[in-house]
Each structure stands twice: as structure tokens, then as C-alpha cells.
């Protein structure tokens, strides 16, 4: 290997790492895993001389390559924005077990009070699948989580009450977020947007 070859491999590896870092906080990471599986199946079918399967997979990969810019349009836009702000290289936060317990306790305390007061709320915890796509539909808050703040957000007269509150890394990331609604037509017409979003 020449020195340039090593540098070439390192640049590609770093690019793949930051691409994954960008996509891991979105729903697109599931699609990316599917594409990797297709590539592996394509390679195996080629090595095992499974000509028909290999042809089908190659045609599928060709179509997907043209579809990728459309499918990943929100992620590509976000990547360019973060690159321009210098945020793409920022480190992710981690939450330990104690902080998670405190977060859950605060949410439960707020839920008990809102239940007594008959106040509706929709709270989402970000886990393995990132929720940046939904965070972008609401108002960014990025505040320390507390039961008082949760209650204030869902007061019916406030601008953010009619939407979802998203919690990430033990903090309130955004509020007033729009979630996909269920398409189940058997549900009662009395159910509102928050109820349908919770089911969806």
C-alpha cells in the first residue's frame, strides 16, 4: 500500500462513520440497514452463482440508488446545515441509569397531576430509533426536564400543548411536535389528534 492508499481508506472510513452518526438519530437508519442487507445478499448470490437472484438484486440496487436522494432528502438537508454550523462533529450525550430513573420519576409525577386535572399530554422518549424528523416539526426547547415544565407545556391555553413533547438524553428536546397519525378507520371519531398520534 502506498501512503495515499492508506489516506484514501481512512478518509472513506471517517466519512462512513460520520454518515452513520448523522443518520442514527433518524428513522433513515432502519432503511440504511436494509440497504446493507441487500448489498450482502447481492454479494452472496454472486459468489454462489445464483444468477436470477443476483440479477433481481442488481436491478433493485440500481433503482434504489436513484431513489436515495429523494428518500434521504431531509437527512441530506440536515447534514449540510450541521456542517455549515460545525455541529456534525459534536459529541453525543449519554444518560446513566440514575439520570434515567430521575427522568421517569419526573414524567410520572407530572402525569399524575395532569391526570387529576384532566389535562391531556403526549410524551415521547427517544430510544434506539432517532426522532430528529419529528423534532424538526416542533419548537426546539433543549431544557432540563422537570415536572413543572412538563405541566406548563401542556396547559391547554399555551401554544405548545397541542403536540408531542420529545425527551432525549434526559432533557426536553422539543415540544409541539407533529407525529404520524394512525389510519385505523375503526377508531371513534371523538378521538382527537393527540390520541391518533399516540396510536400511530
What's the SSE pattern? HHHHHEHEHEEH
CATH architecture group name of the largest domain: 3-Layer(aba) Sandwich
* CA distance, first residue to last residue: 52 Å
Instruction: Please estimate the helix content.
Output: 55-70%
Task: Give the DSSP E fraction (strand runs of 2 or more residues).
Answer: 5-15%
What is the makeup of the main sheet?
A: 4 strands, mixed
* Total individual domains: 2
CATH topology of the largest domain: YojJ-like (1
* Overall SS class: alpha+beta
Low-confidence stretches: none
Give a short summary of the structure:
The chain has 200 residues and is an alpha+beta fold. 56% of the residues lie in helices and 10% in strands.
Q: What would you say this structure looks like, in words?
A:
By secondary structure, the protein is of the alpha+beta class. The protein has 8 helices and 4 strands; from the N terminus they run αααααβαβαββα. The chain starts with a helix and ends with a helix. It has 2 domains: 3-85, no CATH class; 97-199, DNA integrity scanning protein, DisA, N-terminal domain (YojJ-like (1), CATH 3.40.1700.10. It has a 4-stranded mixed beta sheet, with no helix packed on it. Helix content is 56%, strand content 10%.
Amino acid at each position: 500500500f502506498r501512503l495515499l492508499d492508506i489516506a484514501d481508506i481512512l478518509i472513506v472510513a471517517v466519512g462512513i462513520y460520520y454518515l452513520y452518526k448523522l443518520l442514527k438519530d433518524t428513522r433513515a437508519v432502519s432503511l440504511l440497514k436494509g440497504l446493507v442487507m441487500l448489498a450482502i445478499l447481492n454479494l452472496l448470490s454472486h459468489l454462489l452463482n445464483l444468477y436470477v437472484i443476483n440479477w433481481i438484486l442488481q436491478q433493485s440496487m440500481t433503482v434504489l440508488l436513484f431513489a436515495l436522494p429523494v428518500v434521504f432528502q431531509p437527512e441530506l438537508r440536515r447534514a449540510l446545515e450541521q456542517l455549515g454550523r460545525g455541529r456534525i462533529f459534536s459529541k453525543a450525550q449519554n444518560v446513566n441509569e440514575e439520570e434515567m430513573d430521575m427522568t421517569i420519576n419526573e414524567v410520572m409525577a407530572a402525569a399524575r397531576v395532569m391526570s387529576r386535572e384532566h389535562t391531556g399530554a403526549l410524551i415521547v422518549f427517544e430510544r434506539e430509533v432517532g426522532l430528529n424528523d419529528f423534532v424538526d416539526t416542533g419548537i426546539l426547547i433543549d431544557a432540563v426536564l422537570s415536572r413543572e415544565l412538563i405541566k406548563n407545556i401542556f396547559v391547554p391555553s399555551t401554544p405548545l400543548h397541542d403536540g408531542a413533547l420529545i425527551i432525549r438524553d434526559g432533557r426536553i428536546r422539543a415540544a409541539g411536535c407533529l407525529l404520524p397519525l394512525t389510519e385505523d378507520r375503526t377508531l371513534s371519531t371523538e378521538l382527537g389528534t393527540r390520541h391518533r398520534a399516540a396510536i400511530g
